[in-house]
Write a structure and sequence with these properties.
The protein is mainly alpha-helical. The chain is built from seven helices and no strands. The protein is globular, with a radius of gyration of 16 Å. The chain binds protoporphyrin IX containing FE (HEM).
């Protein structure tokens, strides 16, 4: 009897590690240039923050679970409490993320996957808002 085929994760379907590496690389290139976001990051080196976002997104989409091995439960809203995230910060974050998603080619990220990823980012960014201004 044939073995059941294991379900392929979204992570695998969009090119795995290389896609998430590129996504967060471009995202943080944009953050580094962003006058709203850059001051929120306490560290000179954005590399560790880039790595945390990459690990989180890989885990969320069915890839390696390194994020939780290193950081525990994500509790992202709580972890953003030290930062004021109002509509301006949310929109700046989304602008950087839209640029990052746009940097992934159509062969790697087809239209339905691109839409799923974009919809998630918009929902997630909204859910991180913790200030009305
Ligand atoms: C951490 C800003 C939305 C995922 C951080 C940090 C800042 C920040 C300043 C600290 C840097 C660090 O230590 O990593 C913002 C702003 C947002 C936003 C202004 C606007 C909406 C999001 C969203 C996600 C996310 C939507 C997920 C989809 C993360 C993760 C960390 C983090 C995984 C590291 C948490 C940890 O393990 O310590 N964010 N963020 N952020 N953010 Fe955001």
């Amino acid at each position: 009897a044939a073995e059941p085929t294991p379900a392929r994760s979204f992570y695998d379907e969009v090119g795995g590690a290389e896609t998430f590496r590129r996504l967060t690389e471009v995202f943080y290139i944009e953050v580094a240039k962003d006058q709203v976001l850059r001051p929120l990051y306490p560290e000179e080196d954005l590399g560790p923050a880039e790595r945390r976002l990459r690990m989180f997104l890989e885990q969320y989409w069915g890839g390696p679970r390194t994020y939780s091995e290193e950081r525990g439960h994500p509790r992202l809203r709580m972890r953003h409490n030290p930062f004021r995230v109002g509509p301006i910060e949310r929109d700046a974050w989304l602008r950087c993320m839209h640029t990052a998603i746009a940097a992934i080619d159509d062969e790697t990220l087809d239209a339905p996957h691109r839409k799923a990823l974009t919809d998630y980012m918009e929902m997630a960014a909204q859910s991180m808002v913790n200030s009305p201004f």
